[in-house]
């Protein structure tokens, strides 16, 4: 079968758009990915700093309101201001959802957006309480997005050391047993292995790789000192760091103070052959099939090792592998990806998202996603969302997709496209006679469009 612009959009992007040209070659896809991040510039998303600042201000209002000496009227005013901060960020959450969708709808390099979603899931993290429950987009924006076309070691360090990850996996309170803080009388905190375990098992070497509980323990001791400040800025606390050297996978990391030994260990993990094989298999499963050819995985693994973890080399090996273009379209798009694909097919305009009320965003997008099985911005666990198609093909999920496809598009567009035109512009060579008949013979245009959006040609890649 080989490369085709249509296949490129279907398998590696968010499907065809009726208004955006598809890439002409794998080289063009890679060149675009190497280039500037135009969608991030056009549809900006706030970073982590505004959440940190708001957290501090809200905490002050809350503390003031709780003081026994605070007059009742002033306490009430402080509570209102605290609630207003939360309200503003909840509204911003809906705006952010729109911005992220617009990047997928209007981007020429939707391969970049797919990769960002892939790595964000690989490095799943979220805030645990208060405003920080809304921090996932900011975390992805700062830790994942800038490194998606760089080296994996940089992506790894950015994610592992981000305050959201440190908080999510309890690293921010992990203390070396023999550190100054650990030896302090009355200290109740101890060593926490959560981040070390997920670092080895999920983020680098993979489940079943040749590491032991002793490696996990040593890694946990090496990571001590990684923490945060009161406003959730990154901090390295020397007094919490376990003194001495640690041995991980047979290599000793000396007792130099500071981040140098941690960075060395992360780089070694990034370049480990087990990490290369783990990432290669995961990438192939995500983009090609639940059971990709072993020769494809071996090829991707070698490309990663030969380039010392250059992600562009890994992507090039993926895009130039025959299986990427010859394998049948068996993978079903997860709900969030499916919805983005449908919105891209409809070419929903930016000004329509700008006019959405929070209740409309909730009713037309967030609630349906939850029913489909993928609650937006609410991760299921450190291992991210499942890749297996069986996780998404459920009676409730399939029914929710069809219901959304038939009922929501008419609320987003001033006029629905003609089904025949939509078939030609979006489905292209994948159109089948039954689909063409059903869509064009439907009683209403909304039903015809809905049938196209719910078709296997759009839901599978």
UniProtKB/TrEMBL annotation:
Alphabetized InterPro entries for the sequence: DUF1800 (IPR014917)
Protein name: DUF1800 domain-containing protein
Originating organism: Sulfitobacter alexandrii
Phylogenetic classification of the source organism: Bacteria, Pseudomonadati, Pseudomonadota, Alphaproteobacteria, Rhodobacterales
């Amino acid at each position: 079968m080989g490369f085709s612009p249509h296949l490129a959009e279907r398998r590696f992007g968010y499907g065809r758009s009726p208004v955006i040209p598809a890439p002409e070659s794998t080289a063009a896809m890679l060149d675009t990915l190497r280039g500037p991040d135009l969608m991030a510039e056009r549809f900006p998303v706030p970073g982590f700093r505004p959440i940190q600042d708001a957290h501090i201000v809200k905490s002050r209002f809350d503390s003031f309101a709780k003081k026994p000496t605070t007059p009742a009227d002033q306490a009430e005013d402080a509570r209102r201001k605290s609630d207003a901060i939360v309200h503003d960020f909840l509204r911003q959450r809906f705006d952010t959802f729109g911005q992220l969708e617009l990047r997928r709808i209007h981007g020429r390099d939707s391969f970049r957006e797919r990769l960002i979603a892939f790595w964000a899931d690989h490095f799943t993290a979220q805030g645990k309480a208060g405003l920080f429950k809304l921090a996932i987009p900011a975390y992805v924006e700062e830790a994942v997005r800038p490194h998606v076309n760089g080296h994996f070691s940089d992506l790894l360090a950015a994610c592992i050391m981000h305050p959201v990850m440190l908080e999510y996996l309890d690293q921010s309170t992990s203390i070396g047993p023999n550190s100054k803080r650990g030896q302090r009388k009355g200290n109740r905190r101890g060593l926490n292995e959560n981040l070390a375990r997920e670092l080895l098992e999920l983020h680098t070497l993979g489940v079943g790789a040749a590491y032991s509980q002793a490696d996990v323990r040593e890694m946990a001791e090496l990571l001590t000192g990684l923490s945060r400040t009161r406003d959730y800025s990154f901090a390295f606390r020397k007094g919490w760091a376990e003194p001495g050297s640690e041995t991980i996978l047979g290599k000793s990391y000396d007792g130099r103070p500071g981040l140098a030994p941690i960075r060395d260990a992360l780089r070694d993990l990034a370049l480990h052959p087990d990490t290369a094989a783990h990432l290669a298999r995961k990438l192939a499963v995500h983009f090609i099939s639940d059971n990709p050819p072993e020769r494809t995985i071996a090829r991707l693994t070698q490309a990663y090792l030969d380039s010392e973890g250059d992600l562009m080399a890994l992507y090039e090996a993926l895009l130039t592998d025959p299986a990427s273009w010859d394998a049948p379209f068996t993978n079903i798009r997860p709900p969030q990806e499916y919805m983005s694909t449908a919105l891209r097919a409809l070419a929903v305009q930016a000004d329509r998202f700008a006019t959405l009320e929070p209740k409309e965003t909730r009713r037309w997008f967030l609630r349906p996603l939850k029913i489909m099985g993928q609650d937006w911005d609410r991760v299921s666990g450190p291992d991210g969302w499942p890749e297996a198609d069986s996780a998404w093909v459920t009676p409730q999920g399939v029914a929710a997709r069809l219901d959304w496809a038939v009922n929501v598009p008419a609320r987003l567009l001033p006029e629905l496209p003609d089904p025949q035109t939509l078939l030609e512009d979006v489905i292209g060579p994948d159109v089948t006679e039954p689909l063409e008949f059903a869509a064009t013979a439907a009683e209403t245009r909304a039903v015809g469009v809905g049938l196209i959006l719910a078709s296997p040609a759009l839901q599978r890649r």
